[in-house]
TrEMBL record:
This is L-carnitine dehydrogenase. It catalyses: carnitine + NAD(+) = 3-dehydrocarnitine + NADH + H(+). SUPFAM superfamilies: 6-phosphogluconate dehydrogenase C-terminal domain-like, NAD(P)-binding Rossmann-fold domains, Thioesterase/thiol ester dehydrase-isomerase. Belongs to the 3-hydroxyacyl-CoA dehydrogenase family. L-carnitine dehydrogenase subfamily. GO terms for cellular component: cytoplasm. The keyword Amino-acid biosynthesis does not apply. It comes from Albidovulum denitrificans. Pfam families: 3HCDH (PF00725), 3HCDH_N (PF02737), 4HBT_2 (PF13279).
Amino acid sequence: MARKAAIIGGGVIGGGWAARFLLNGWDVAVFDPDPEAERKIGEVLANARAALPALSDVPMPPEGRLTFAGSITEAVEGAEYIQESVSERLDLKHRILAQIQQSSHGVPIGSSTSGFKPSELQEGAADPSVIFVAHPFNPVYLLPLAEVVPSVKSDAKLIENAKEILRQIGMFPLHVRKEIDAHIADRFLEAVWREALWLVKDGVATTEEIDEAIRMGFGLRWGQMGLFETYRIAGGEAGMKHFLAQFGPCLTWPWTKLMDVPEYNDELVDLIAGQSDAQSGKYTIRELERIRDGNLIGFMRVLKDRDWGAGKVLKEHDKRLAALLPEPPKAEVLELAQMQVLPGWIDYNGHMTESRYLFAGTMVCDNLLRLIGADMDYVAGGHSYFTAENHVIHLDEAKLGDHLTGTVQVLSYDEKRLHAFIRILKGETVIATVEQMLLHVDMKAGKACPAAPEVLARLKPIAEAHAALPRPESAGRHVGQRKG
Ligand SMILES: NC(=O)C1=CN([C@@H]2O[C@H](COP(=O)(O)OP(=O)(O)OC[C@H]3O[C@@H](n4cnc5c(N)ncnc54)[C@H](O)[C@@H]3O)[C@@H](O)[C@H]2O)C=CC1
Ligand SMILES: C[N+](C)(C)CC(=O)CC(=O)[O-]
């Protein structure tokens, strides 16, 4: 039976939490009195379904069941984890936490609060030890960070359990050791936000110019190395000490207005909102969300290939998901990859470009290799499979956003060779096949050699079962040869 999470407050953030739990196989009950909540969560979920699987290289678990509860009591019944995501008002959060605790006993209650300290949330609670901050980042279904902030009253074991649950849904719980208003990340965001408001108010820059200053420069750096590693490099060969020597004095120069905030009034709101409308009003919010998600997926996939930063978290989550996969039914072709056609995959003909078919095929093949134990640890040990020959047959088109699956049928194998037939499907339609011949290689010696016995032992039952399947008509076909 699927595990259950309760989401109390189903707005921007609650919707994102619901999507992340659901797509990782948990059942989710949402409570939100807003009559529009169901529609809004449906739209967030549609975007999440199109986005999150594109980050995974192993099949994700079957989606959990989403229900909308009529009361908090109903939502939290049987829940193993509760996430409070109501509006940022302390009195409201207190009321909601008290209602949750009337029906939940000993269950972790994370709060999405952007700024309240856990000790503030715990004030007057029946059981303060289970309430903590689990502060996520929008879009919650894609970004891994959740700042986990306990207080001195928190139950340390429960916090560790909650962090493990967050890992199980692909998140990166960052344990904030000392509670502080706005935690770690929002202190930076607020500092940058205040400076940006000043720059617009003082007529120095428009909202668009500020966004360009971020996304054309330091924003790109931050996403992969953060602040300190970036500045260490900026110090040149002498590193951080030189950086501090050069830029330390500017702390006292008028580079910053951080201690001061512009007056929040209608004039400021109209100025910022007006410029923002001029900048991006041509898109709906949902369109902007999809653009953002596509960009994040592309960026995070690069980090994943490089096993770095947020990409490392994705790789670890793949390993976790792979360990949960049931034994594949060996008498059938193996479905080993789910993909989504991303903007960078589209060519000037407006459809998926040819090199991406091979890319999709190799993703399926890499997953087969992982399945038989020829994984990255095996490669690190000096052995791997190299592709000796590929034959791609294009049968149909794929368009931006299409969901593709990849299957593999092992046609034959011996100690040194592996002959695989891959199908790329859109729904039920095979849009391409990729036939591959792989050679097992001793990378140090630079020549083919027999695969390790444990790899062959895993490959054998799959190949034997696949030998009973009909041989694909186009297997062995050469370019231009007619069928039949
Ligand atoms: N929007 C953002 O960028 C981020 C927000 N957060 C935090 O997440 C929390 C929620 O913020 P958003 O989702 O942005 O706000 P939102 O306004 O989109 O959603 C809040 C939801 O709470 C619901 N709500 C109000 N009273 C309720 C009640 N009595 N019972 C159940 N639901 C109730 C509202 O109907 C609404 O759907 C806040 O604590 C916020 O600080 C955290 C990270 C990022
Ligand atoms: C603006 N904000 C304080 C609500 C931002 C956050 O809390 C995190 C985010 O997703 O930017």
